[in-house]
C-alpha cells in the first residue's frame, strides 16, 4: 500500500497585536519575542519527522515562524499565496472589540458561509483557496511529509473541510498560535485528521490509521 501524504498545518506565532486586531494581509507585522520563542519550539516539536518540503504564507509572521524549522531541516521554504490569511478588506487592522459591536459580527460567527468582508474575500473563497492549495501541495508531494505555515482562519477552514464539517461550523474549531494540526491524505483519496491544535509534545509518533 502506498504511503499517505501527511500535511502539518502550523499557525504562526503571536505578534504584538494577536487577539486585539484583525491584521489580515497588512505588511510589516512581525512576531513578538514570545512568538519567536514559539517558532523555535515548533522546530523542536517537528524534530525527527521526515519532512521533505516547507510551504508558507508570504506574510512576515508566517515566514518568521517557519525560519527555525527551515534551518533545522535544511529545507528552503516555498511561499504559496494559497496559504495567505483571509483578505479582510476594509476590516483590516480594525480592533476586535469594535468589530464585535457590529451586527455583521454575528454573521461572521454563526453563518460565515454567507459573509464577505467589505472590499475583501468571502469565507467561502478563503476555504476554496486553502483547500485548493493543500490539494496542489499534497499531489506534488505524494507519500511525503510536508509542513505548511499559515493563519488561523484558513487552517480552521481546511480542517473543517477535511472533517466534512460545514463551513458554518468552522468557527467551532480552535487553532492557537504556533499550534500544529495534521491531515493525512491516502492514495485513494481518503482523508483523516490525525491531530488538531496541538501546542506541546513531539509529533514523531503521529501515524496514519493504516500504519
Structural commentary:
- Helix content is 33%, strand content 17%.
- It is α/β, with parallel strands linked by helices and 211 residues long.
- α1 (33-46) runs parallel beside α2.
- The longest helix has 18 residues, at 123-140.
- It is globular and about 50 Å long.
Q: Tally the helices: what do you get?
A: 6
Low-pLDDT stretches are none
Give the biggest beta sheet. Answer: 6 strands, mixed
**How much beta, percentage-wise?**
15-25%
Mean of residue pLDDT values: 95
What structural class do you assign from the helix and strand content?
alpha/beta
Oligomer: single chain
Strand order of the largest sheet: 3-2-4-1-5-6
Quantity of strands, as a count: 6
Q: What does the radius of gyration come to?
A: 16 Å
Helicity level:
25-40%
What is the H-and-E element order? EHEHEHHHEHEE
Task: State the distance separating the first and last CA atoms.
Answer: 10 Å
Short description:
By secondary structure, this protein is of the alpha/beta class. The chain has helices at about 35-45, 60-75, 95-100, 105-110, 125-140, 150-165; strands at about 5-10, 50-55, 75-80, 145-150, 180-185, 190-200.
List keywords for this structure.
six-stranded mixed sheet, globular, alpha/beta, single chain, 6 helices, 6 strands, 211 residues, 17% strand
SSE diagram, text form:
Elements: E1 5-11, H1 33-46, E2 51-56, H2 60-73, E3 77-79, H3 96-99, H4 104-110, H5 123-140, E4 145-150, H6 152-163, E5 180-185, E6 191-198
Parallel strand pairs: 1-4, 2-3, 2-4
Antiparallel strand pairs: 1-5, 5-6
Helix pairs in contact: 1-2, 5-6
